[in-house]
Amino acid sequence: SAVISQKPSRDICQRGTSLTIQCQVDSQVTMMFWYRQQPGQSLTLIATANQGSEATYESGFVIDKFPISRPNLTFSTLTVSNMSPEDSSIYLCSVEVRGHMNTEAFFGQGTRLTVV
Amino acid sequence: SQKIEQNSEALNIQEGKTATLTCNYTNYSPAYLQWYRQDPGRGPVFLLLIRENEKEKRKERLKVTFDTTLKQSLFHITASQPADSATYLCALVWTTDSWGKLQFGAGTQVVVTP
Question: 20 to 30 A from A48, CA-CA: which of A106, B75, B102, B104?
């Protein structure tokens, strides 16, 4: 299993500013994943963060808007840059743990971002 | 692109009954399919995984089936309890090369009344 601490849990930000979200895992993991959940919507994968290399972004997401750091095997940050009200969402980090019988994802509690 | 559909309407069910949720997908079958539970203000919590070569999995009061012909998974909560009230998400991993990259359905809210 994995325990993920994510902070802040929520924030209200002014448009045009940036917010950095932190994600700490209690064990070393190769990949960490960042998702966005817009109001009433499903979770959408933003990017995959590997330690020691550039993050891999999904279609529709770019590094300039969502820069990611992965300085070690237990920590990652996601920055939401130059925010607009459309960026108001819940942002979640995730790791995958593979067992003998199961592969499951563990999620942080999420960061609820409101841009005004 | 691949699409995943879950019932958008909330499922209201009486305590003790069985709740059945549907997850439909398009195009080719995923390598594996997972079901998660999400409570308000929380991240999803893993419940069950089923692989493309498996027909059924069970865990306590939960059962998931996988029909690659129908391109559908069914998720059952038997003997439902008010504590089962939550949103249930299906998530697909399309290939074994994409470990950890989950594509989620929008989720179905379940409300269990005493």
Answer: B75
Q: Would you call A31 and B49 a contact, using CB atoms and an 8 Å cutoff? A: no
pLDDT tens, position by position, A37-46: 998 888 999 9
B30: contact with A, CB 8 A cutoff: no
State how far the Cα of A57 lies from the Cα of A47, in Å rounded to an integer: 4
CB A90 within 8 A of CB A112: yes
Token output for A53: 């290399």
Inter-chain touch A43–B104, beta carbons under 8 Å: yes
Give the DSSP letter of residue A27: S
Q: Which of B41, B46, B105 sits opposite A105 (nearest CB)?
A: B46
Minimal CA separation from B10 to chain A, in Å: 12
